[in-house]
Design brief:
Two copies of one chain form a homodimer. The first copy, chain A, is of the alpha+beta class. Chain A contains 13 helices and 23 strands.
């Protein structure tokens, strides 16, 4: 992608309304633009990151055996009246009356709708277990939306729902999702801390939340440091669930069950939450199946959520420096940028074009061919967080050199033009 | 994907509310489930088709130089009040009041929001032309939603917006999109007929609609048969725009400019619409740029829409038989199905497993391992419209044979098990 054809407006100044670093950086780097309180347009750069995260979340769901569908954003109030949550949900639910006077709403979550879909088609234990998910925009009418996409009103969530014959089976499904969540966050380059949690308005008896570590995180976590040392080749769900972890208002040092030298205190951001809530919705919405004795029994359900748009902000909180965002390679909006510092110089242009032509079919490349100052070019590419940068300057090119910069460390080395392609290919392919 | 793990509930009976064939087939094949009037959940099979179409639309937009972003579904009323359309739009706009009493709405289209984004960042002719698109759910509160996803209330649309310095440049952008639309529909296996159209409530002076031919189409088209003979290697926009074409209520035989033997009459379904509307929105919403003489001038805009969820229905109207849907290979939810007619037979299972293991890493395969009757298996695979089907029966397997069925023609041949993989690979790779 040539930067001159792209639409990625970077801003020099920190906007006043942005209180936290991820919000500031997302606006400055041209990832998002607020359209109204808590509602954002995802500009091209932001959308690329959002999609990259979405695809990793999707892939781990598919690998865990969950099946994707897509429920609409607008739901009828009927099912929510049946479940008893229509009144319970309060003002966070965006309630709408359509032209025929029917009560509808913008879905804040989907327990009701998925249970209705399930019960319309499945009525035998032979079709269990089932685990269905979707990735769809939700709306929660927060009284004070803030922190950019971290607490927006319209937000993208992956939510899935498991259906099992018994509590025992449901716990197996629950643990499978627990494992999928750990894998998802690790793949995003994050350190997930899982905490036993309150079930809250969703109901039920078992719940975990997933926080990722970030120095600028919103919560303070107290946890067994073993939680940080996950064996990625063999995730032991039971073991992870057995370690101590609590957010600060639930942590009481005098009752803490682990030794002080085993306890870690760090800041975190909540990015996922999973629930087992038994037959709460299946009973109310008629999701019964026949078991092998011919009896009709309500299915045991769980629900599982990852805030995908929130993760974009959370990942920036977890990985940035004073120059801007530092994206891991698999999430970066572009893997490499080719930065031509002298667009009017024929040699520079030739070298830059050549890199672009050789690499653009293989990787997502940003070719910075903008007519702007050298300083702006360099600082924009750092701000945006492009992992690898090939910087082409007039003097270097004369010496048959280019600069190769690694954003993660901000290390920069001069390499010969002839070797550059091989170095880039090695970096990208062996990562 | 093993059918037993999938969630794809096929129905035997035609639902009473479904008036047209695509709606009937989508419900029977388990592609969609209505959740409320004109609002559908996309079940896994339907979602796969929707995504395949979406990806082709996206790819042709990218090739034409348009840049993707994503605007939210919920918009503030403010910009619509500025443009003058807030009152104009009428009851089709879903109007909402949020918890703080602010007027918001579910976007039926995005001219206002994109113009606001443009004007926030771009103020020089040097940054033109720009063409921005998004693929997002829209809501139009139709008084009588019907025909399934063909006239739903919540629907998926690709809409883009072009920004140019002059009318002349804007027409170039318009024609580029015209060409991209023709290419998109051809790639979907459809025959697009382009017609000069009224601009309607969007305003402006130049507009075309795109209808695709389908025997069961909603409109009757009168057109120069040259429109059907598109040279796909070299799409001549000017020539295509010069041919006569009209929907029936605008066609007057006595005034028809072409010879009778050149005139064709056929049924069509509208799937796209493009508009050039000059400075209507840029003037009202302040989208001005400085030209090369230093003057501030309003940009010339166009907007372009393809109904992606509607296309799913339209494609079924264009391609089905009495057994069900016939998907082209690039749109099919699965390219091949492996149908094991005898799941309890060891030999059948071995052969079927072997096919699945060899093919599933290369293509999207549906492995029909369900515990149901032979008749249901065969008819479901035809109903769903899987292009290639490998049918594994007990007697055939003993003779070292399987049945290879091509859904397009319903031809079926016995082939040796050893050759089957090669035949399938040839079919899929050389298509």
């Amino acid at each position: 992608m040539k930067f001159s054809n792209f639409f990625s407006p970077t801003l020099k100044n920190v906007p006043a309304e942005a209180e936290i670093i991820s919000h500031q950086l997302m606006i400055r780097s041209g990832m998002i633009k607020q359209s109204s309180a808590g509602i954002y347009s995802w500009l091209p750069l932001g959308l690329r990151v959002l999609k990259n995260i979405e695809n990793i979340v999707r892939d781990e769901q598919n690998k865990a055996g969950a099946v994707e569908l897509l429920m609409p954003t607008i739901q009828s109030a009927d099912l929510w009246i049946k479940s008893g949550r229509y009144n319970e949900y309060g003002k966070e639910m965006l309630r709408i009356t359509d032209r025929s006077g029917r009560e509808i709403l913008y879905g804040p979550t989907n327990e009701e709708l998925i249970t209705d879909i399930f019960q319309s088609y499945i009525n035998s234990y032979k079709d269990l277990p089932k685990n269905l998910y979707h990735i769809q925009w939700k709306f929660r009418d927060e009284v004070r939306p803030r922190f950019g996409v971290m607490r927006g009103r319209e937000f993208l969530m992956k939510d899935n729902y498991s259906f099992d014959l018994s509590e025992q089976d449901a716990i197996i499904s629950y643990n499978k999702m627990f494992e999928a969540y750990i894998k998802t966050f690790l793949r995003l380059g994050l350190i997930p801390i899982s905490l036993r949690a309150e079930t809250g308005p969703i109901g039920g008896s078992l719940s975990h939340e997933f926080q990722i570590l970030a120095k600028t995180g919103e919560s303070t976590l107290y946890y067994d440091k073993a939680l940080e040392q996950i064996d990625t080749t063999n995730i032991d769900t039971k073991k992870l669930q057995s370690y101590y972890a609590a957010v600060d208002d639930l942590h009481d040092q005098s009752k803490c069950p682990i030794e002080k030298n085993q306890l870690k205190i760090a800041k975190g951001i909540e990015v996922g939450h999973i629930f087992y809530f038994g037959t709460k919705y299946s009973e109310k919405l008629g999701a019964f199946v026949q078991n092998n004795r011919g009896e009709n029994v309500p299915v045991h359900m769980g629900s599982y959520g990852i805030g995908i748009s929130r993760l974009v902000g959370a990942m920036i909180e977890a990985s940035h420096d004073d120059k801007g965002i530092i994206w891991p390679l698999n999430i970066a909006p572009f893997k490499i940028s080719i930065i031509n510092l002298m667009i009017d110089d024929e040699n520079c242009k030739k070298v830059a074009d050549n890199f672009y032509n050789q690499l653009s079919s293989k990787f997502e490349i940003l070719y910075d061919d903008r007519d702007c100052s050298i300083g702006k070019k360099l600082s924009d590419n750092d701000l945006i967080g492009i992992p690898y940068q090939i910087i082409i300057g007039k003097r270097d090119v004369k010496d048959n050199l280019v600069e190769f910069k690694i954003r993660q460390t901000n290390e920069s080395t001069k390499i010969s033009i002839d070797e550059a392609i091989n170095i880039v290919l090695k970096k990208l392919i062996y990562k």
